[in-house]
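Dissemination and training. As part of the outreach component of the grant, students in the summer workshop were shown how a complex can be specified as a set of sequence lines and then modelled as a single object. The example used during the hands-on session is reproduced here so that future cohorts can follow it. Participants entered these lines:
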Amino acid sequence: MSEKSRPKFLSVLAGEKQSRPPVWFMRQAGRYLPEYRALRATAPNFIAFCLDPEKAAEATLQPMRRLPFDAAIVFADILLIPRAIGQEVWFEAGEGPKLGALPSIERMRDLAPAAGEALKNVGETLSRVRAALDPEKALIGFAGAPWTVATYMIEGGSSDRSGARTYAYEHPETLDALIDVLVEATVDYLAMQAASGAQVLKLFESWAEGLSEDLFERLVIRPHTAIVKGLRARGVTTPVIGFPRGAAALVDRYAVVTPVDAVALDTTAPAALGQRVQAAKPIQGALDPLLLRAGGPALDERVETLLAQWGEGPYIFNLGHGILPDTPIAHVERVLKRVTGKDPTPNFTPKMDY
Ligand code: CP3
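and obtained this result:
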C-alpha cells in the first residue's frame, strides 16, 4: 500500500508521528442515524441483521458516507460468539439481549475451534466493506473479551454483573474453563476477521469494572494476553486495541503486561494516566457519550482539553463508551470538524428506501 493511501489510523497504531489524531466513535453505526433506523426496520431481528452481510455492510458504511471518520467498524455484536458455541441468543425490543441456558463446557469446547467458520457471514461483511471503503480509511473488526461475554452467558442477559462475579467465586473451575473456551473461539473468530479484511482488531472488555486485582489478573489480563499470543502464533500481525472499561486503577498494569498494541480508555481516565500509557502504547478515548449528546460549550471545552492533554500522540480520538441513540448528529459533526478540520459531506441526503 502506498504511503499516501495508508490509513492515518494504522500509522498512529504503528507509532509514527501524527499530524492530528485519527477519529472514530464506538457504535458509530446505529440508532442516532435515521438511515440506520430505516435499514434496521427491514430485518426480522437484530441477530439476523448482524448475520446478513449485505445489510451489515450497508450499516457499517452509512456513517462513513456522511461523516469524516477515519475508520469504519464492522457492524456485528459481541453476542455472536455465544451463539457460535451453542448458546441461544435473541434480542427483545426495549429489553436488550436474552440468552438461553448455558451449554455444557464439553459442547462449547467442541464448537470453539470452528467459531470463525460459524460466523463467516461477518467475514463476508468485512470483505464487502473493505472493497467499498476509501483506501485511506481503516477497517476495524472486533470481539467481546471473554469475561464480558461470559457475564452475559452466565446471567442470561444484561445485569449489574453481580451474578457473574458471584459465579467466579463459587464455581472457579467452571468459569476458568468457560474463559478458556472463549479465548479459543475468539482467536479463531478474530483470525477469520483479519483474513477477511479487518486491519485493526478491538477487544471490548465492557465489564472490567468492580473486579479486584486478583480477579482482574485472572479474568482480564490472562485471557487478553492469551488471545493476542494466540493470534500471533497463527501468524496474524493485525494490531489489537484492548478496552478494559471501568478499570482505570488497573490500566497502568494492563498496558504494560498485556501484549495489546493500544489501549482504549473510558470516560474516567485522568490526563496523567493517558500520558503514562502513551509512553508505552497508543491510547484511544475518552469523551463522555453523555457530553456528546448534551453539546454546548462544555462539549467544546472537553474536546479542547482532550486534544491538549493527549493530542501530541500517539492518540486516537474516540468516546469512552458507545454513542447514545438520541445524540444529535450536529454534535457529532461539530466534534469531527474540530478534530479533522473536515466538514460533513455537503448536501448529504441519506438513503431511506431500503
Ligand atoms: O458501530 C459499531 O460500533 C459497531 C457495532 C457494534 C454493536 N454492538 C451494534 C449494536 C459493536 C462494536 C457492539 C459491541 C457490543 N455489543 C458491546 C460492547 C461495547 C459496549 O457497548 O459496551 C456490548 C456490551 C454489546 C451487547 C449489546 N448489543 C447490548 C447490551 C445491546 C442492547 C443495548 C442497546 O444498545 O440496545 C446490543 C444491541 C446493539 N448492538 C445495537 C447496536 C447498533 C442496538 C440494537 C438495534 O439497533 O436494534
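The longest strand covers residues 138-144. Students were then asked to discuss how this feature might be tested experimentally.
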